[in-house]
Amino acid sequence: MIYLFSGDDTKKKLASYEAFLAAHTKAKKEAKETFFINKNDFDPMQLESFYSGASLFSAKSAVVFHDILAGEEESEFILPRLKEMAESENSFIFLEGKLGKPVLDAFKKARAELNMFEAPKERKEKFNSFVIANAFAQKDKFNTWLYFRQAVERGVALDELSGILFWKVKDMLLKRSFGKFQEEELKDLAGRLSYLLPQARKKGPEAESALEQFLLEAF
To answer: What is the pLDDT of residue 26?
Structure first.
């Protein structure tokens, strides 16, 4: 039989694995030897002896693999042999990280007992980029910079931030609502914003620094 414990919720996965291992060992009346195998001591010939039944070890064993499928060579050897492991009298227990669909499908095909533990995805509230544009329109340097840093940390694209600033400046010009700016200032800012990121990207991977510097020096 094959048992798989996988996923990125490490705490729950390990707790379930430990509970299973304790119960599995206790439930077996006959002497049962347990072998722990990781990438460093993986031996194909030894593994074959476990599932073939012609081993030098005890009649029934529990073989525990720890992150063995993270290695390409090990994974390529093991996955085609899951059927033989499933038919063996020995137990094969896999403790793995998050696995891809092809690997999981191979375990399902071998009728393995799957125990999946996925960590819940963090739900991040969408950042309101308009707060940057509004602070910029008020010539509020500190809050413009603060909102910029918050947006970057939330993963908002630089093009979105630059675009909304450009839109705000153009909107002020079209409505002739210059606020604390002079008309010529806004025209200059609009022009600089239109080529700021493309120009920065031609020079190197410092587009974020270029936009941040622009905000700090705009007024």
So the answer is: 65
CA distance 172 to 32: 79
- Closest by CA position to 219, among listed 145, 160, 151: 145
- The amino acid occupying position 4 is L
Adjacency order of strands within the sheet including 33-37: 33-37, 61-66, 91-95, 2-6, 113-116
Domain locations in the chain as residue ranges: 2-116, 130-217
Helix (H) or strand (E) holding 63: strand 61-66
**Residue where the block lists tokens 């008309």:** 183
Question: Cα(21)–Cα(153) distance, rounded to whole angstroms?
Answer: 42
Give the span between the Cα atoms of 156 and 197, in whole angstroms.
15
- Give me the chain's average pLDDT, please: 88
Question: DSSP 3-state assignment of 42?
Answer: coil
Indicate the DSSP class of residue 59.
S
Assigned token pair, 170 = 């153009």
CATH number for the domain formed by residue range(s) 2-116: 3.40.50.300
CA distances, 103 to each of 16, 79, 107 (Å):
21, 7, 7
pTM above 0.85, yes or no: no
Task: Judge whether 67 and 97 are in contact, CB under 8 Å.
Answer: yes
